[in-house]
Amino acid sequence: MDLNSALELADVDAVGQAALVAAGDVSAVELLDAAILRVEATRGLNAVITDLFDRGRSHATQLDESGVLRGDDLGPLAGVPFLLKDLGASLAGAPEAMGSRALRTHVATESAWIVDHYLQAGLVPFGKTNTPEWGNHCTTEPSLYGPTVNPWSPDATPGGSSGGSAAAVAAGVVPAASGGDGTGSIRVPASCCGLVGLKPRRGRTSFAPGAGHGLEGLVNEHALTRTVRDSAALLDAVTGSAPGDPYSAPLPTTPFLLSIANDPGPQRILTTTESPFPGATTHPDVIAGVDAVARTLAGLGHRIETGSPTIDPDAVADAIAVLHTVSNVQLHALATEHLGREPHEDEFEASTWVMVREGFGTTGLAYAEAIAAVHAQTRRFATGMAGHDVLLVPTLLTPPPPYALLDQPRGTTRKFFDVEFATTGWTTLANVTGWAAISLPLATTADGLPVGVQLMAADEAVLLQLAAQLEDAMPWRDRKPAGWVSG
C-alpha cells in the first residue's frame, strides 16, 4: 500500500475500518501496513515508543488466512490495527518499561486480561505508546523516552498518563489506542488532544491475571478514540470479569454499540463549572464550552440544573496522595526484583522518588484511613447526586497545559496533587467514586486548542447515549490538528 492510500484510511474510524475488511475491500495486513506507514510519517510526535510490527503482521496474516474476517465471529473490530499503552496493557514477550528508567529492559511475561480480549475481538496490536513513569503524571514527558508532542500544538502537553495513545489517535495514526485512568489519565489526554475518552465504571473490566484492582479501585482501563461508536465497540470487547475478581460491574442488558442508537430519555443533569477543590479557577473558554453543552442538552429535552455534589477536598487529596505513595512502593519492589538490586535514585523521575520515599514511611493505619476516606467521600458524592442522573462539568479547568507543569516534584506527594487538581478539577472524583465518566471534544479555546467537556454517571450506557446525541448535535469529526498525519 502506498502512502496516499494509507493517509486516506487515517480518517476512517475503527468500526469503519473493520467494515472494509469484512466487505473484502481491504485485508487486515493492508490495514496494518497503512498504519505502519502512518507511524513512520509521525515519528516526530514520539507517540509510539516500541514497534511490534512483525508481531502485528503475523497476527494480521493469521486473521486474513483463517477466513474469520468474512464472518461474524469476531465482531465489529476485527482486523483493525491497534496500539497498546506501555502501562496496564501487558503483552507477553513484549517490552514493558512503564515509562521508568528502572524498568527499561523489562519484558512482560504474561498478557493482561484486557489485551487477551482485544486479541479475541480481532484487533491487531502492533506497537506500544509513550507514558509517564508508572502513570504518576497527567502529562507525558518521561525522561526515559522523552516527551510526546501534542498534534495540536508543540507547546501544549498531550496530557497523561495515556498521552502517547492520545497523540497517535489525534494525529490519525490509528483510530483507537488503549489507555488507563487513575485520576484522569484517559480523560485528561482526551481533552488535550480533542478526543473521546471514556473511563468505565469500577469493575467493568478485569485486572487479571496480575491484580484484582489498581490503586484500591481508582484505576480503570479503556481507550482513546475519535468517535463514540468506537468507544462503545471497544467497551463491548472488554466488558466482563475473570474468575476470582474481587468485584465486577453488572453486565449490560444491551451491547454498548447497539445502545448508542437508543434515546436515553430525559436525563436530570446537574452542572457546574466551579472546581471541587478550593483556590482553583476555571478558564473562561472552558466555562463557555460547558455552558454551550448545557444549552444543547436542554434543547435535546434534558433537564439542566446548576449545582454540584460536595466533597471534603482535603480528605480526597490526602487519600489520593497516600494511595499513590503505597502504589509507588509496590512498583519500586517490582523494579528491585527485575534489576536484582535496589534501584538508584537517579533511575527514577524526581517526583516519583518523592512518592517512593514517602511510601516507605506510610503506616498501615494511614493506608487504611485513606481507603476509608475514599469510601466516605463516595457516599457523600452519591448523596449529593440524589435526584440527578448525570453530572456535567469541565474535563480540565484550563486549556491544554504546558509541559514541565504536571510532572514536577513539589516537596511532598500531597503538594504534587494540589497542583494537579488545580488543573484537572473534577476528573479524580470519578475515580474516587467509581462512576463512569466521559470527556468529549465539544469546545475549543480562542486560539483553536481543544477543550474537553465531561459527563459523569453511575453507568456507561447513559453516558454513551448522551455522547452520541452530542456527536450529532455538536459534531467534532472534521476538526483536525496541525499535526494530522496528512496535514
Automatic annotation (TrEMBL):
Coiled coil: none annotated. Residues 30-458 form the Amidase domain. Gene3D superfamilies: Amidase signature (AS) domain (3.90.1300.10). It is an enzyme of class 3 (hydrolase). It catalyses: a monocarboxylic acid amide + H2O = a monocarboxylate + NH4(+). PANTHER family: GLUTAMYL-TRNA(GLN) AMIDOTRANSFERASE SUBUNIT A, MITOCHONDRIAL (PTHR11895:SF7), TRANSAMIDASE (PTHR11895). Belongs to the amidase family. Pfam families: Amidase. InterPro entries: Amidase (IPR000120), Amidase_dom (IPR023631), AS_sf (IPR036928). Keywords: Hydrolase. This is amidase. Its EC number is 3.5.1.4. It comes from the Bacteria. GO terms for molecular function: amidase activity.
